[in-house]
Write a structure and sequence with these properties.
A five-stranded parallel beta sheet has the order 2-3-1-4-5. A two-stranded antiparallel sheet has the order 6-7. Helix 7 packs parallel to helix 12 and helix 8 runs antiparallel to helix 10. By secondary structure, it is an alpha/beta fold. It is built from twelve helices and seven strands. The chain has a single domain, classed as P-loop containing nucleotide triphosphate hydrolases (Rossmann fold, 3-Layer(aba) Sandwich). The chain is elongated, with a radius of gyration of 34 Å. About 50% of the residues lie in helices and about 10% in strands.
Length: about 350
């Protein structure tokens, strides 16, 4: 017996209701699956964000731990006093200090030693972070394919004052190692007497030192009186050195380094003011030159070039300091951070 029309309608209704139920259940399952997927995506994003934050923090730490400073110190510019601050702080601030001792204090390295030095500085991870110092001329690391260059810093001094200090240092030594016999020990001739007699140790050519130290390992750098060397030294000072101070304003130099590179110089300013090694090395038996001796040296083209470089460095240092330091009640204070970020897009 065939089902009636009413029974057919009832059957169709049941089937439709059954499929509606299936669709509803499927929709609920799908919605829950989508919700679970969205939750997983959010969790993954949070995990990735946290991982990125940790990686960024680790990268910052690794970046600081990978820092290398090179102080290619010019003789008789208060370099020993400054270097001893680095030695006193290295244990506390957790970095290494290494002295670059070249044979006969030759500031120019052979090409093979340049390669060795660059390799050591960049790959000697056990010594990082590191503060290298020594009487070596500027070395351009980019010539050797290095991507991350070291940070160069330096100090320079009034050229005649530096020469006078060096002249007496060779004869009488200093209070750092008073028992060490110097190369010109026994020569009692004063600097003025040397200038008057036209001696070689006080000749204008002896002024030619700070320019080649900043100029670098090019032959022209060491040609006395080279205009190209002067321009190259200025270029390197501005483009390759983070900071170049002057001996006459050493405390300001130390303060600015502490603000810029606390990983190395945290506590340096206080140590300079109160430490026993801040003014450690004073040349013995030094007699200031007369105005006549100074005037005679200032007539030379070499002095004019070295003094030009010194004035250039001094102006640059004072410019940097003017944008970093303020004076209040006779004391200098480093400026706080005066930039911030805004209008950061896209919005989260």
């Amino acid at each position: 017996m065939w089902p009636s029309h009413e029974q057919n309608l009832q059957n169709k209704t049941c089937v439709l209701n059954f499929f509606k139920t299936l669709l509803s259940v499927d929709h609920q399952i799908t919605s829950r699956a989508i919700a679970r997927h969205e939750v997983r995506e959010i969790e993954q994003r949070h995990t990735q964000d946290g991982l990125r934050e940790r990686e960024a923090a680790a990268a910052l730490t690794n970046s600081e731990d990978d820092l290398v400073i090179i102080y290619n110190r010019v003789p008789k510019t208060a370099s020993t006093s400054f270097t001893n601050i680095a030695y006193d702080l290295c244990g506390k601030n957790h970095y290494h200090v290494l002295h670059i001792n070249t044979t006969k204090n030759n500031p120019v390295m052979s090409i093979q030693d340049q390669v060795r030095f660059v390799k050591n500085v960049t790959e000697w991870r056990e010594m990082k972070p590191a503060f290298y110092h020594g009487h070596v001329s500027f070395l351009d690391f980019t010539k050797f394919g290095v991507k991350r260059k070291p940070i160069y810093i330096n100090l320079i001094r009034d050229p005649i004052e530096r020469l006078v200090s060096y002249y007496y240092f060779l004869r009488f030594g200093d209070d750092y190692r008073p028992g060490l016999r110097r190369r010109k020990q026994g020569d009692k001739k004063t600097f003025d007497e040397c200038v008057s007699a036209g001696g070689s140790d006080c000749a204008p050519e002896k002024l030619w030192l700070q320019i080649p130290f900043f100029c670098g390992h090019y032959s022209e750098c060491w040609n006395v009186g080279s205009q190209w060397a002067l321009e190259q030294a200025k270029y390197n000072l501005v483009n390759e050195y983070m900071l170049v101070g002057v001996t006459e304003e050493l405390e300001d130099f130390v303060m600015m380094l502490e603000a810029a590179l606390p990983r190395f110089f945290r506590g340096a300013t206080e140590l300079y003011k109160t430490g026993k090694k801040s003014h450690l090395r004073r040349t013995s038996e030094k007699k200031p030159p007369t105005k006549e001796s100074i005037a005679k040296l200032q007539q030379s083209a070499i002095w004019k070039m070295e003094n030009d470089f010194y004035e250039f460095a001094l102006e640059q240092f004072q410019f940097v300091r003017a944008h970093a330091v303020r004076e209040k009640d006779g004391e200098l204070y480093m400026l706080a951070q005066n930039f911030f970020y805004e209008k950061i897009y896209p919005k989260n």
